[in-house]
Amino acid sequence: MNYTFQWGVALQHLPGLLEGAKLTFIIGFLTFWGASLLGLVMAALKTYGGRIARRIVGAYVIFFTNTPALVQIWFLYFGLPDVGIVWDKFTCMLIGLTLNSGAYLTEIIRAGFISVRRNEIEAAETLGFSRIQQVWYVIVPHIAKTIYPALANFFIVILVMGTSIGSVIGVQELTSQAKDLATVDYRYLEVFTIAAAIYVVLTFVASITLALVGRWAFRVKAKIF
Amino acid sequence: MRGDLSHHLEIKGACASYGRIQVLKGVDLTLGKGEVVALIGPSGSGKSTVLRMVMGLTLSTAGEIRLDGEAVNYRNPASLRRLRDRIAVVFQQYNLFQNMDVMRNVTIAPLKIKRRPRDQVVADAKRVLAKVGLADKLAAYPDELSGGQQQRVAIARALCLNPEILLLDEVTSALDPELVNEVLDTIRGLAAEGMTMLIVSHEMAFVREVATRVILMDDGQMVEAGTPQDIFDKPQTQRARDFVGKILRH
Ligand SMILES: Nc1ncnc2c1ncn2[C@@H]1O[C@H](COP(=O)(O)OP(=O)(O)OP(=O)(O)O)[C@@H](O)[C@H]1O
Ligand SMILES: [Mg+2]
Q1: What distance in Å separates the CA atoms of residue B56 and residue A125, rounded to the nearest whole number?
Q2: In whole angstroms, what is the distance from residue A170 CA to residue A179 CA?
Q3: CA atoms within 13 A on the CB side of B26
Q4: Which one of A22, A109, A116, B191 is most buried, by most CB atoms within 10 A?
């Protein structure tokens, strides 16, 4: 081992890496909310929908959880132009990742729907709650609380693993930036170490924030470490 | 003499089904002001269904239910709301809201549904919770309470609606024997205050003590009705003799 670290050179790339980190966060954030909304609709269809709706949702979940997100994004980016649909790489990234994550979130959210106890709904009914009040005061808080840990966990997965797929089609998120900046003066080890550190900080801050929100809003006794 | 001539709650010839299976086959029952009527009978005889039907959770297929002489229309939301405004129920399984603490469980309906002023609701809730012996558990969540405590919260929640009639469905059946008494004491207290109650119970000694009238059900029908002495000491029908004999033997 006679590698001489040259942090000075690598640190010059810090602004570029932070720029990438910002995009990583934006993609993670947008994907998470888009996928949650998609998952919510799909889970509702799968729980309360008719037979055909349930079949369609089932096929969606199976298809997207059994093929790699990378392939799905490549399909959008390289495949669709062949049939005349051209989206920029950012859009492909976002749509691909949202569809993929939405499939996983459908199952997570559905577990929340199923867990609502008939008992509590009937109690609310006899106490005089209207249908909307039942949903607002009983069903939604229950689902939110039940699935919060899984949801928070999945956000981290998207943030780290999901977004880094962008590097393959050249979306300039953190991994992509690190790869490009490292080649400028071949300080791979230093640049990727810094990139890894930024990922750790990003997930650390996100985990703590989510844990605190969970504790405050849902009494989730989350382990931070 | 307890009991009012004007019947508070009246069930006349009520039938109910789950799917194609008829579980209530013409039930008649009256509950006067201040009365404590006990509904007893073997498992599956339809006792819970009677209470569910009164609360509008299970719709009757025939017959009618009257409140102060006026027929309740369960398909009319306003009529149903008026009924639920006056009758409260506590079920077999303490169905508290798991995501709310004790105070919120008890106050949410008066605050959000009845829109009563906050200070008054909170003061009421504290008084009622103290009465059921839970003054020190206001901030606890259901999963931090014992079964007996949860059941008492459920009773407090029902009482905070200031109901005129309270329906209790085997509120002690899910409890360990040592917890049963704390809940029964609460009900004894209510009976002493003159609360009108329809209770389903397997605690025969308790029924004998608090009930003004006892109704024995079997297979979706009323088999016999009378004072606790009538039913337990000199049952008239063979079915009643069998049932009483069985429950008194253990
Ligand atoms: N949701 C349901 N769907 C179908 N059948 C039901 C349902 N609930 C109850 N039943 C049936 O209706 C009949 C009456 O049930 P109910 O719960 O009223 O009896 P019960 O007298 O309260 O019995 P227990 O003492 O065991 O509580 C039973 O035969 C039961 O199997
Ligand atoms: Mg029952």
Answers
A1: 9
A2: 10
A3: 1
A4: A109
Q: Is residue B183 part of a domain?
A: yes
Q: Provide the 10 A C-beta neighbour count for residue B97.
A: 22
CA distance B103 to B164: 22
Amino acid at A52: I
Instruction: Quote the number of domains for chain B.
Output: 1
Secondary element (H or E) of residue B247: helix B238-249
Q: How remote is the CA of residue B95 from the centroid of ligand 2, in Å?
A: 14
Q: How far apart are CA A54 and CA A71, in angstroms?
A: 25
Residue A155 carries which side chain, given as an amino acid letter?
F
pLDDT at B58: 93
Amino acid letter for position B106: V
Q: Rounded to two decimals, what is the model's pTM?
A: 0.76
Are the CB atoms for A176 and A163 separated by under 8 Å?
A: no
CB B142 within 8 A of CB B153: yes
In this predicted model, what pLDDT tens digit does every residue of B163-180 receive, in sequence order? Answer: 999 999 988 877 777 778
Question: CATH code for A10-218?
Answer: 1.10.3720.10
Query: CB distance from B27 to chain A under 8 Å?
Result: no
The CA angle A165-A170-A171, to the nearest 5 degrees, is: 70
User: Which of B55, B100, B141 comes nearest A126 by C-beta?
Assistant: B55
Q: Which of A117, A126, A219 sits opposite B89 (nearest CB)?
A: A126
